[in-house]
Amino acid sequence: MTMTILRPHLAMLLLLCLAACAGLGARPSPPRVSLADIRVQEIKLFETVFQVQMRVFNTSDSALAIEGIEADLDLNGKPFARGVGRSRITIPPFGTELVTLDVYSSAMNMVALLLEAMKERRTSQDTLDRFGYRLQGRLHLGRTGRISALPFASEGNLGAGLNQPGGSLSPLW
Fold it and tell me: Within a 10 A sphere around the Cβ of 150, how many other Cβ atoms?
């Protein structure tokens, strides 16, 4: 008799467990992020502020609710600038948006970059073509699921954007 009383409760418990597991969902596809533009925003005595625009591609079949972003920018394999900011934006499934972030570089990093460019004694376009970049960080998501942040990484050459129609990467000097 005890077994007949427990069966409905066990069945209900099993159904609740299955429903809870189904609600967790699969991990979203990692977003693709590329450097769209970089501009000098402010030069101070000890740091330079750059405004970086990143193109974020949502490769998932569900909307991507971004609350914030953190990023590190390396130039020629050396740490150059980093930033963190609140960027509340929702990217629709299989959609894309531009996200802007201020990144900060020390004056010493900026001087080293200028000296490296001057040492090469090349034209501005040649120098940009030689400057490889790596942009990496995390997109912080809204509190809608169990995943709180998605990592991203992108790399290329700074001059590549100048050769594209509508490309507008600002020279760094």
Answer: 20
pTM for this structure? 0.71
Q: Is the dihedral of CA 33, 159, 47, 43 positive or negative?
A: negative
Q: Of 110, 126, 109, nearest to 160 (Cα)?
A: 126
- Phi, psi (5° rounding) for residue 45? -60, -45
Residue where the block lists tokens 């802007």? 100
Which percentage of the chain shows pLDDT scores above 90? 46
Averaged pLDDT, 9-30: 54
pLDDT band at 101 (very low <50, low <70, confident <90, very high): very high
Residue 74 in contact with residue 80, Cβ under 8 Å? yes
Report which listed range, 26-30, 97-101, 128-132, is most confident: 97-101
HSE at residue 155, side-chain half, CA atoms within 13 A, is: 10
Task: Domains for the chain: give ranges and CATH numbers.
Answer: 29-163 (2.60.40.1820)
Identify residue 112 by its one-letter amino acid code.
A
